[in-house]
């Protein structure tokens, strides 16, 4: 189910985070916990993976991560401000040092002219550091492909937050 090269990436990532004594939290919407699932596929991941939030609904984003309902109403759940708030909330509501957040439209429905299927926003929050954001327009490539692409980009953000040796 999980590509071998992703397992290798995840294992290297976990090793680097463990070496630095850092913990990870995930805040996932359109990926539905796939990033946390990938990381916890690796034996010993409990030394690094602090927790994962699957916040598929707007209410879950508000209740579990503290994303203001007004922010969602103003910008929509699939937006940079909401991704930022999700990452910040994951740090605040966990003991993690680094949090990655993902919110997007995997399809095949749910897209609009301004927020098409395949649009995904990411945020990476690290304690005592600026939040990094990423926006991807994968296009209407199919639900599974959008979600897989989002997992790969979330790994890239987590890799970029630490030196991999």
UniProtKB/TrEMBL annotation:
Residues forming the CinA C-terminal domain are 10-159
InterPro entries assigned? CinA-like_C (IPR036653), CinA_C (IPR008136)
The protein's name is CinA family protein
